[in-house]
Amino acid sequence: MPTHEPGRRDTGPSLEQILDLIAPGMLDVVVAPRGTTVPVAGVALHDPGEERDDGTWSATGLILLVVGVEVASPEAVDVLRAADRAGAAAVVMRRGGRGPRAALVEAAGRGRTALLARRPGQGWTEVLGGLRTALAHSAPAGADGVAGMAGLRLGDLSGLANTVADLVGGAITIEDPQSRVLAYSRLDHEPDPMRRLTILGQEVPRWRVVELRESGFFQTLWSSEDVVRLPADARYAERLAIAVRHGPEVLGSIWAAADGRPLAEDAAAALRTAARAAVPHLSHHQTWGRAAARAREDAVHALLKGDVRAAHEAGVATDRPYAVVVAEAYDGHEGRHGYDGRREYDGYDRYDGRAGSAVTAGQRVLDVLALQAAAYRPGCVTARSGRRLYVLVPAGDGETGPARTLLATARSVPRSVVLAGAGPVAAALSGLPASRETAELVVRVLRERAGGRPAGEVVSAVAAYDEVVPETTVLRLLDRVEPVWDSLSGPVHAMVEHDRAHGSAYGDSVAAYLDASCDTGTAARRLNVHPNTLRYRLRRARELFGVDPADPAMRLLAEIGLRLAARRPPGNVGR
Question: Strand 114-118 relative to strand 90-94: parallel, antiparallel, unpaired?
Fold first, then answer.
């Protein structure tokens, strides 16, 4: 709920200026009773249910994003009138399919607050980010040194690079997170070989990216909020680099190289200033490119489902073999059931794990993994899906190469666990769904292994399909048997239901006994009980339910039923 904050500006850029700076087609002006020259002081999410009726709620000069309210909804008029009383500059509501009601348009015309509509296809996250970027660019320069970069047109990355070069006393390159060149400063001196190669190729050479990745430099850069120094060597001049961040998101990086002269003494301080000033420019660049990036990711997902027509838009060559790598990330503090069987996923899912929640350590590590995957080899493309990162890798040095690269990166990120699986190489794009399904099976095997350990002992792991063939085969069989098993009843069903209802451990005891090849001593040690206790439980399982591991048929049924039961979290008897 927005409130009036001490010291907040009641004047600022006009609504018209803000709308000119955001991506076209994002918002429509429905009614602007005072025109669009009204000043804007800020932007905030607004929950109408939290308004105060004591007259102390103030939204002076704010653009309020009213999430959950459509222009055609009955409560829209009351929301608009309340915002008008609080002094809001504008209110944004979802347009929907029917358009605004006449009563809402009439109410807006009688007030002072502009009514804006969010167009279909535009998410609230994009609208909020676009408005904040526009406000950040329009805000007056403060006393932190950003004033030297004021006046640049939003998105003028070349102008930004030249301005930073003057401050740093060296050559500047602005890059995206995949080490592609977005802008570079003018060439006042002969560049060193690396800068020349980077500018000519419009990206850092792949072999140099590999060097920096394997040395841990990129990991340090993406995880640090300060300037990182790359010392000079016999080949190249000294470089300073800093990541440009918008909250937890890495927008890119700024690199300074000694350009025929030493860098200025305060070069690091100047780069810190530049990183702050670059945020609205890179956010603007990213916002305008967001639709294209989303389309590319959707195309990758379509390819993974078998639509080979999406290859061009996904940036995938139609005449090259590819393998699919799947990486699944978790916070290291998640409990055992965070890793269990299929609790999180069952097949190909497009769930967005970051919607409506704080960015977790597991989600942050996926961002880093995506950067590393894109830098792994030309032609690698990625797509996110909840906890998962899908990577399409052109076949080259073996199926597990990229997966092991992701794992090495994951191990350097604290408080995270990554399970990565590599599917077989698909000779044609039509084989990508099978490679993806196999990679997902490998991850399921790793997840089920992790589910058998205490949370604090779960570690990142990687495997290729040919390393876990028996376990993936068992998973395939159990997937097909499960519907039949659920339709049946018998001794194992009764034992499992009794354990769930009463908290007993007959099923765990039988499972441990079978896993130990019917060796009572080994099974007892794994359960941390006395062998006599285990013998008692096995006898009671036979007496109460008829589950006798000495019977070959019953032993097979127990293996199947107890493996299926282990997939489900406690208290969940059915699927």
Answer: parallel
Query: At 233, which helix (H) or strand (E)?
Result: none
Between 377 and 400, residue with greater pLDDT: 377
| d(C-alpha 21, C-alpha 430), whole Å | 42
Rounded to a whole number, what is the largest CA-CA distance in the chain? 89
Tokens describing residue 500: 């769930």
Distance CA 248, CA 359 (A): 8
Tell me the pTM. Answer: 0.52
Query: How far is CA 538 from its chain centroid?
Result: 47
SS (H, E, C) 514-572: HHCCCCHHHHHHHHCCCHHHHHHHHHHHHHHHCCCCCCHHHHHHHHHHHHHHHCCCCCC
Q: How far apart are CA 551 and CA 546, in angstroms?
A: 10
Cβ atoms 51, 145 nearer than 8 A: no
Q: What is the pLDDT of residue 113?
A: 95
* SS3 at position 460: coil
Angle of the 206-214 helix axis to the 361-376 helix axis, nearest 10:
140
Write out the two tokens for 534. 């285990």
Q: At what angle do helices 267-304 and 124-138 cross, to 10 degrees?
A: 160
**In residues, how long is the chain?**
575
Please, which residues have CB within 8 angstroms of residue 100's CB and are 6 or more apart in sequence?
30, 71, 72, 76, 115, 117
Pick the closest to residue 444 from 348, 370, 371, 353 (CA basis): 348
Cα 95 from Cα 23, distance rounded (Å): 17
User: Residue 66 to residues 43, 60, 82, 122: CA-CA distances in angstroms?
Assistant: 11, 16, 12, 14
For residue 17, the Cα-to-chain-centroid distance in whole angstroms is 32
**Complete DSSP assignment for 159-191:** HHHHHHHHHHTSEEEEE-TTSBEEEE---SSPP
Q: How far apart are the first and last CA of the chain?
A: 40
Q: Provide the pLDDT for residue 56.
A: 62
- What pLDDT is attached to residue 406? 60
